Amino acid sequence: MKDTHTIILEEIKNEIKNVDGPSVIWIRGSPGIKKSALAASIANRLVDQKRHVISFRFDRTDSTITTSALWRTVACDLARLFPSLRQQLAQGDLGRSSSDVDRLFKSLIEEPLSVLVDTIPCEELPVIVIDALDECGGLRHDAPGKKDLQDLLHMLKRWIQVDHLKKLKLFITSRPEHSIAFPDSISIHDIPSGHGVKLEDSVSNDICTFLQSRLVDMQMETAWITEALKYLVPGAAGIFIWVQGIISVMGTMIYAKQPLSDDVLVMLPGVKTGKSNVMPLIRKGLASVIGSGDILHFHHKSFEDYLLSTLFQQDLPELSVIQDRGHHKRELAMLCLKTLVSPKLYFNMCNLDSSVIKNADIQPDVKSAISPLNFIFISILGRPSCSYSV
Fold this sequence. Notes:
By secondary structure, this protein is α/β, with parallel strands linked by helices. It contains 16 helices and 5 strands. It has helices at residues 6-17, 35-48, 67-81, 86-90, 101-116, 143-161, 202-217, 222-235, 243-255, 262-265, 279-285, 301-307, 310-315, 325-340, 364-367, 372-381; strands spanning 24-28, 53-57, 127-131, 169-174, 187-190. The radius of gyration is 26 Å and the shape is globular.
């Protein structure tokens, strides 16, 4: 958004222009703080300035996006940008599958760049943007997945040490994982979140700019906007306003085997409704991270990852019950027990004429006879063999 992240974007622009400065620029921060948006903004600005950019993004859901894929992508873009390198790159490992990532790196990146940096000025060399470094290895928690990340970190550290590689700028984004570490010679930009955010921080100013723009679009009165910002901006760093209900809702959203509606969530033991429906309040408190539809879901998988991370425990230890799988499974079990003793659950409650019936033939009034809690019961305990039992 215009007029946001102006300070950090200006700092990074100056560091990239400084040929004698650090060769690696690292943006790190918690999930959901728009690191990828920053990476895209920086890449777009460089392209607008006629600077060559090579961009690559890891994805935890795609196991084919590996360290080897990164260096092959970089090599392909180098060949596209600099025809003089094509013959040398064609003799490397570009077209062959190799488990020796170190050899691939040397033949596709290190050796060709030793020729390139001697033929063109440093300011014309490409900037390499690597987004979501922490997602290297994907969802694999096995030895190969961990080794893939370790191999990449080894090569990036080598990048800092080799003279001709240091002439190219590497821009990296990642979460602040303990497994990711670099020498002190690189440039690190930490984006604060949670309790680390102060009102005088630039990120608070960005939040204020964003909220003010949206409230103006909603045609709110100026006086009301001023008062609203006083409340919303400080609270933006920590979204847990209605703690007890939000913990129950988010924990169940994570550990349930299917998406859940408000009608189900209000029946959780931890969600105290009293005489009123508390779900609109909970939805309001989580508006920045959940969708607005009938079925609750997180906008971004990274927010769920953050809730389950050690970083979340450090930021908000008082809310660590969110990570208590047993607690939320017990709440789901209570929902199942409520279903079992419910008078709405009885033999052939849908008045079906036959035990063999296609889903397409089920009438809307038949589907409406099945309580949402019954679907919870099915998803957790397994689908019964007889449709009458449903």
